[in-house]
Specification:
By secondary structure, the chain is α/β, with parallel strands linked by helices. It has two domains: about 1-165, Rossmann fold, CATH 3.40.50; about 170-295, N-(1-d-carboxylethyl)-l-norvaline Dehydrogenase, domain 2, CATH 1.10.1040. It contains ten helices and 13 strands. It has helices at about 10-20, 80-85, 105, 145-155, 170-190, 200-220, 230-235, 245-250, 260-275, 280-295, and strands at about 1-5, 25-30, 40, 50, 55, 65-70, 95, 115-120, 120, 125-130, 130-135, 140-145, 160-165. A six-stranded parallel β-sheet has the order 5-2-1-6-7-8, with helices on both faces. A four-stranded mixed β-sheet has the order 4-3-11-10, with helices on one face. A three-stranded mixed β-sheet has the order 9-12-13, sandwiched between helices. A hairpin with a 5-residue loop joins strand 3 and strand 4. Helix 6 (about 200-220) packs across helix 7. It is globular and about 55 Å long. The N and C termini lie far apart (about 40 Å). The relative contact order is 0.12. Bound molecules: NADP nicotinamide-adenine-dinucleotide phosphate. NADP nicotinamide-adenine-dinucleotide phosphate binds next to helix 1 and strand 10.
Length: about 300
């Protein structure tokens, strides 16, 4: 059986671990810090999927896997290094299921030369408790076309998770990042849900954050519509009033925030390309201060 390890078994990792285990043709190990006692996925149609997975609690007890699915938050990647060190060998491939555009730069130093497959995660899910996840829609993952992308799609066949490959991953990753730079930052800083974007000044700030990201994206080779900022803010304003963001939930729960892989990544790429990103820079500074206080 192909050996798969999932590191970061929260909302996204839990859905993926349960899906892969349910194929019955993979040996799936959930690498966790505290026991899960199985996985329960509450599906959008009301069905409940219960799956048992092998659990590992100590990095020193795991060995090389064919695939590692890394689904910690981006800022938790360094903390996952002991797992990656043990799980990665020359033949291992690491699918990085994290937001942002810097998957390879972030993870490559920790995998000792294992192949890295970046992914855009289109899995809307919420962790309700240890191993208990609410899934809001059909889970989908987008990966770059090529050998590793096709193999990952084959790995996930029958898991209930759609894996799409794209020849333009740069656009796919930036499109997701542009969607994410306003909602997470603004809701986390204001500690308010999506209706905060009804405020005209907040909407203007949101547009500025997305427009800076769009300009950096375009200079990075992404093909995104020029009116993207208007579209993103219109979408946020139309969302149900109870909608929030994972950064808002993390702030409310007193956890560190995933701002650096989002707004921080726009600032870094902008600096490399000579494109000013003052709004993202200012919000990165504020989020950094907030996140530091939560550590
Ligand atoms: N949730 C969504 O709807 C969604 C949608 C699209 C993209 N994403 C992206 O997907 C990524 C994962 O997000 P998520 O929502 O699944 O996060 P999450 O629910 O917070 O899960 C992260 C998991 O990583 C675990 N973890 C952290 N450090 C670890 C370590 N050193 N060893 C073992 N486990 C460790 C945490 O375990 P503990 O419980 O022990 O802390 C937690 O279970 C993020 O980049 C996020 O932005 C999420």
């Amino acid at each position: 059986m192909t050996r798969v390890a999932v590191v970061g078994v929260g909302a996204v990792g839990g859905v993926v671990a349960a899906g892969l285990a349910s194929t019955g043709r993979l040996e799936v190990t959930a690498c966790v810090r505290t026991p899960l006692g199985g996985l329960r996925i509450d599906r959008p149609d009301g069905a409940v999927q219960k799956t048992s997975v092998r659990e590992a609690l100590d990095p020193s007890l795991v060995t090389e896997a064919a695939w590692v699915v890394l689904a910690t938050k981006a800022h938790q990647t360094a903390g996952a290094a002991p797992w990656l060190k043990r799980l990665c060998g020359a033949g291992t491939r690491v699918a990085v299921l994290q937001n942002g555009i810097e998957h390879v730069e972030r993870v490559a130093p920790l995998t000792g030369g294992a192949g890295i497959l970046p992914a855009v995660v289109e899995i809307s899910a919420e962790s309700l408790g240890r191993g208990h996840i609410r899934l809001f829609g059909p889970p989908r993952i987008v990966v770059p076309a090529g050998h590793d992308g096709s193999d990952f799609a084959a790995l996930c066949e029958g898991s209930g998770i759609t894996v799409a490959t794209t020849g333009d991953f740069v656009t796919a990753a930036w499109a997701k990042l542009c969607q994410n730079v306003a909602n997470g930052a603004v809701t986390a800083l204001t500690m308010r849900r999506m209706p905060v974007f009804a405020n005209p000044r907040i909407a203007r700030l949101g547009r500025a954050l997305v427009e800076e990201a769009r300009q950096v994206a375009a200079a990075s080779g992404a093909h995104l519509p020029e009116d993207l900022a208007d579209r993103v803010i219109a979408t946020l304003r139309a969302m149900p009033p109870e909608s929030g963001s994972s950064m808002l939930w993390d702030r409310l729960a007193g956890r560190a925030l995933e701002y650096d892989a989002r707004n921080g990544a726009v600032v870094r790429a902008g600096a490399r390309l000579g494109i000013p990103t003052p709004h993202n820079d200012a919000l990165t500074a504020l989020l950094e201060a907030v996140s530091e206080a939560e550590k």
